[in-house]
Amino acid sequence: MKILVINPNSTEAVTRGIDEACAPLRMPGGPAIEAVTLKEGPPGIETQQHVDGVVPHLLNCISKNEAAAYVIACYSDPGLHSLREATKNPVLGISECGILTALTLGQKFGVIAILQKSIPRHLRYMGALGVMDRLAAELPVGVGVTELSDEAKTFGRMVDVGKRLREAHGADVIVMGCAGMARYRKPLQDAVGVPVVEPTQAAVVMAIGRVRLAWEASSN
Asked: Are residues 73 and 146 in the same domain?
């Protein structure tokens, strides 16, 4: 059995970070976890046009890659419902899974976004999920996807935003709002002092449960 984790952007450094974040979830007797890059995707998914544009490529990817479950490793959950229509196997989006996990760890969750322009898109999605009353705030670090691997530029900003979410907005759990942030989960949690959810890990954990218990979603 295999869980296929698809990075919908074309930046290999993001896929490597995702693969490393999945390492603690690989276990003897468990499903294999494979992280792949959607080479047809943009370098970073930062606009609604990017989100919409990768959907046909994601559909093509899952049609050519049989897996027991699929994880869409982008915080905008591109094509989530279209992909669920295209396969009987579980398809999980990291935003939905990250938020649902956060709701089990605290009363108010905060989100660290990459860019200010990402936030309206995320707010629309959280409104559709019906979780706005549990959102403390979402704040940006002002760093694009391709720059996230630059620790000197990124990590200090993430700590600053995380502390503002906790102190000024009352967040008692934080969700990292981009798969490209994966490498920073544990150090960010240590620095900010509240639980930090890495959403790809959250989605893969759910995928493992779905695969082991042989659950299938009802038809949409």
From this structure: no
pTM: 0.92
The SS3 assignment for 70 reads: strand
Residue 22 is given by DSSP the state H
Segment 6-63, tens digit of pLDDT = 999 999 999 999 999 999 999 998 899 999 999 999 999 889 999 999 999 999 999 9
Question: Which residues is 2 bridged to in the sheet?
Answer: 32
Q: Which residues, at least 6 apart from 18, have a Cβ–Cβ distance to it below 8 Å?
A: 5, 7, 35, 73, 179, 182, 200
pLDDT at 220 > cutoff 70: no
Find the CATH number of the domain harbouring 185. 3.40.50.12500
User: What is the distance between the alpha carbons of residues 67 and 121, in angstroms, rounded to a whole number?
Assistant: 29
User: Could you tell me if 150 and 134 lie in one domain?
Assistant: yes
Are 75 and 145 within one domain? no
Residue 161, domain member (yes or no): yes
Q: Are 181 and 2 in contact (CB under 8 A)?
A: no
Q: How confident is the model at residue 190 (pLDDT cuts 50, 70, 90)?
A: very high
